[in-house]
Structures are given as C-alpha cells and as structure tokens.
C-alpha cells in the first residue's frame, strides 16, 4: 500500500487548493443549471415523454459534457507541476515505484471527482421529494458518469506526464477527448460501416446506455480497459526517463 502516501499528499493538495474548489463550484453550478433546464423540459412535455428518456437521458449527457470540461483542468497539474518545480526527481528517490506514484495521483483526482459527483445527487433527491420516481435509471447514469470520468482522468494523467506545462497538458487532453467525441459524428465522410466499427471504441457512444438507465457489463469492461490503457501509457511515459539517462 505504498501508493497511499502519494494518494494522501495529492488529496490534501486538492482539498487545500482554491483552484480545485473553484473548479468544483463551476462543476456544481453547471450541473445545477443543466438539471434545472432539463427538468423544465420534462415539466413542459412530461405528458408525452418518459422521465428516463427525457430528464435523465439529457441530464447525464450534460453531466458527461461538464466532466469533459472540468477534468482536464484538474489533471493538468498531476505530473506537469512536479516536473516544472523539479520535485519529480525527489519523488523518484523515495522507495516508490512508478506504478505507486501513478496510482496515488490518479486515485486522489478520482476521489475528488467522486466527491463532486456525489454533491450533484442533491438535485435528484430534491426532485424526489416532490415527484417520486424509480431510482434505477439515475443510479445507472451516475455509474456511467463515474466510469467515463475515470477514463477522462486517466487520459489527463497521461498527457500531464508528457510535459511540464500545465496548459499544454490540459489542451492536449481536450484535443483527444474532443476528437473522440466528434469521431462518430460524420457518417457521410467515412461511411456507415466504418462508423459502426468506430462507435464500438467511442467513449461517448458507450456512455449512451448508462444515460438511458441501462447497465451493460460490456460497457463497464470497456471503460475499465480504457482507463487501464491510459494509465499504462502514463507508466511508459515515466519509464522513458530510464533510456533517456534520467534516474
């Protein structure tokens, strides 16, 4: 459990950082705004549409979008700041392996994100007090948000390990996530057959079932593998110092 020392250190930095609280506030304000507007849409057309296909579907798609906006700003400092300040070399002198360092940093950011997501649960709870509903679909949606958020964090962790510039780290993460988001939009350009193949590997298309209240074990496995893939890339990035002569 050597990664716990890194995990605790990073968690203290998150919960003691004004920027992290500002990002959390932005996350909650945007989530609240989208929940309100989606709820108004459902209230206007509630007699014609189901709550799962209107309110929950739109809300969790919006929550996924907000996560894509906020998480690269949370992950950009994980390794980039250490490199800029020169403290990354100090980390390498500790009795810790690269996987310990990566896991500790990743889990700290993930726990902070999880805390933000849990705070948004107040919105459906308040709705339930005036309009009872089945909890299955929103719980499935929250599971999807947590899984796709973990993948976003792993992606941001990888790009933070490549540079000492936090802005470059954030923009690189945005670039990859936006590319993956737009990948399946233009069916006419690549053809329906290729779109069908690409959509199976799309982080955003895979999230669709969760937003609709459906839990698919294949989608859970996909996000788990995608998260592991980016963390392995991060490990390779850190270990590249060995053949570059950096100890």
Task: Describe the fold and architecture.
The chain is an all-alpha fold and 247 residues long. It has one domain (3-239). 81% of the residues lie in helices and 0% in strands. The chain contains 13 helices and no strands. The longest helix has 28 residues, at 18-45. It is globular, with a radius of gyration of 19 Å. The mean pLDDT is 86.
Concise structural overview:
The protein is mainly α. The protein has 13 helices and no strands.
Write the layout of secondary structure elements.
Layout (H helix, E strand, L loop, with lengths): L2 H13 L2 H28 L6 H24 L4 H6 L1 H7 L4 H22 L2 H9 L5 H25 L5 H17 L4 H4 L1 H8 L3 H9 L5 H27 L4
């Amino acid at each position: 459990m050597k990664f716990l020392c890194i995990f605790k250190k990073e968690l203290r930095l998150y919960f003691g950082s004004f920027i992290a609280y500002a990002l959390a506030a932005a996350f909650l304000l945007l989530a609240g705004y989208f929940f309100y507007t989606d709820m108004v849409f459902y209230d206007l057309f509630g007699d014609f549409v189901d709550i799962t296909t209107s309110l929950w579907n739109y809300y969790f798609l919006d929550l996924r979008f907000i996560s894509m906006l906020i998480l690269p700003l949370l992950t950009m400092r994980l390794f980039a700041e250490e490199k800029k300040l020169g403290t990354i070399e100090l980390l390498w002198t500790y009795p810790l392996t690269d996987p310990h360092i990566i896991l500790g940093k990743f889990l700290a950011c993930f726990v902070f994100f999880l805390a933000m997501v849990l705070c948004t649960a107040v919105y459906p709870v308040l709705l339930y007090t005036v309009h009872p509903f089945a909890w299955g679909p929103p719980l499935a949606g929250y599971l999807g948000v947590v899984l796709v958020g973990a993948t976003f964090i792993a992606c941001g962790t990888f790009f933070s390990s490549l540079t000492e510039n936090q802005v470059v780290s954030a923009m690189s993460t945005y670039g990859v996530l936006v590319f993956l988001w737009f990948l399946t939009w233009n069916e006419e350009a690549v053809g329906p057959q290729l779109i069908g193949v690409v959509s199976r590997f799309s982080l955003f298309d895979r999230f669709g079932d969760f937003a609709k209240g459906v839990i698919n074990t294949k989608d859970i496995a996909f996000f788990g593998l995608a998260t592991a893939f980016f963390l392995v890339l991060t490990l390779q990035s850190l270990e590249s110092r060995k053949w570059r002569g950096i100890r």
